[in-house]
Amino acid sequence: MVIARKFLLAKHFNGPPNVDDFKIIEEDLPDIKDGEFLAEAVYLSVDPYMRAYSHRMTEGSPMVGSQVAKIIESKNEDFPVGKYIAANFDWQTHTISSTDGVGTPYLLPDLEELPLSYGLSVLGMPGNTAYFSFLDICKPKAGETVIISGAAGAVGIIVGQVAKMQSCRVIGITGSDDKGQYIVENFGFDGYVNYKRENLEEQLKQAAPEGIDCYYDNVAGEISTTVIKQMNTFGRICICGSISSYNTDINNPPKVSCVQLHMLRKQLLMQGFQSIPYRNRIFESINQHLEWIREGKLKYIETITEGFENMPKAFIEMLEGKNLGKAVVKV
Ligand SMILES: NC(=O)C1=CN([C@@H]2O[C@H](COP(=O)(O)OP(=O)(O)OC[C@H]3O[C@@H](n4cnc5c(N)ncnc54)[C@H](OP(=O)(O)O)[C@@H]3O)[C@@H](O)[C@H]2O)C=CC1
Ligand SMILES: CCCCCC(=O)/C=C/[C@H]1[C@H](O)CC(=O)[C@@H]1CCCCCCC(=O)O
């Protein structure tokens, strides 16, 4: 008999999540049937979308998630015992999976020397997001200036390095000087601005004196309005995320100043991006990122919290900006 531990959304978040908003339960799992396999979580992901998506969940339902898991029992020859998978399983330690339906688990390639947790980060959903969004939407050209908000996070550190590969000037927006210095020293960013310091507008003017051609937006809100006001004619904006709004009341979103006149004057293009439609092309980004990592062109960092019981803590801390790179929990 296998006992799974799982986290439920005990009550809807009111502003930033609190540890009391979650409940951990234990569940006896039945024997697996033909076509099924049993997987044990090794690493679990905590992602910003879980906060934004939570308002659609009913209280008492499992927290949605994804994980890298080891197959420990199997009656499915495509998913043999001992292999590792990436799967959209909830916040739970053990899962019985049948492979029909949306978001079918997939076997991870042999990562050799690389950490298995990369299957949730640079070789997982955030990597796939960066890969299919930035080049296609921002269309960066050599010599152009690229600004990235959420620059020291899971998606941002990949986009920054890809922008450098395109010979762009790359400035990151971060919530601390430590993070800003880290991405400059370790990931080749040309500079950073700290949105928690005074006068972001002036900081940006100094960091991007020739204006901004591409904006990769992970945060939205006033930070983004300030960036958009400094964009050059025919600039391109990729909307990847809106984290500055996730902790706010869905029926009472934050008021931000209007950008339309700036967009009209500068003939800017803005496009939103969803990674879900690209889920079935994940091996394209995995293979490209593996190649770049092995060639030394792409580096990565993760913030790992130990212990399944600390899932809520890791999630809360990621939303507070305590992570550098991808926030992951090791069971
Ligand atoms: N469109 C899609 O398909 C996908 C979208 N996303 C989106 O991309 C964005 C980044 O995700 P990801 O890289 O996984 O997360 P990160 O690893 O960047 O972690 C979140 C970071 O957001 C920053 N942050 C938190 N609150 C605020 C705020 N109020 N204003 C500005 N920044 C804030 C913090 O960094 P700091 O200390 O710098 O403030 C924090 O570390 C999110 O908006 C997410 O929803 C992610 C994956 C797929
Ligand atoms: C719910 C707000 C999503 C904000 C952007 C984001 O972080 C998206 C992440 C997706 C990632 O690819 C894995 C997912 O399942 C995330 C999306 C989940 C909900 C999408 C709802 C879209 C909608 O509101 O129509």
What does this structure look like?
This protein is an alpha/beta fold and 331 residues long. It has two domains: 2-120 and 302-330, Medium-chain alcohol dehydrogenases, catalytic domain (Quinone Oxidoreductase, Chain A, domain 1), CATH 3.90.180.10; 125-272, NAD(P)-binding Rossmann-like Domain (Rossmann fold), CATH 3.40.50.720. The chain contains nine helices and 15 strands. The chain has helices spanning 48-53, 125-138, 156-165, 177-187, 200-207, 221-228, 260-266, 282-294, 311-319, and strands at residues 2-9, 22-29, 37-45, 67-74, 84-87, 94-97, 106-107, 145-149, 169-174, 191-194, 212-217, 231-239, 269-272, 302-306, 326-330. The strands form three sheets. Strands 3, 4, 5, 6, 7, 14 and 15 form a seven-stranded mixed β-sheet that branches. Strands 10-9-8-11-12-13 form a six-stranded parallel β-sheet, with helices on both faces. Helix 2 packs across helix 3 (156-165) and helix 2 packs across helix 8. The longest helix is centred in the middle third of the chain and has 14 residues, at 125-138. It is globular. The two termini are 20 Å apart. The mean pLDDT is 96. The ligand CCCCCC(=O)/C=C/[C@H]1[C@H](O)CC(=O)[C@@H]1CCCCCCC(=O)O binds at residues 48-49, 52-53, 125, 241, 275-276. The ligand CCCCCC(=O)/C=C/[C@H]1[C@H](O)CC(=O)[C@@H]1CCCCCCC(=O)O is lined by residues 48-49, 52-53, 125, 241, 275-276. Residues 17-329 form the Enoyl reductase (ER) domain. This is Prostaglandin reductase 1. Belongs to the NADP-dependent oxidoreductase L4BD family.
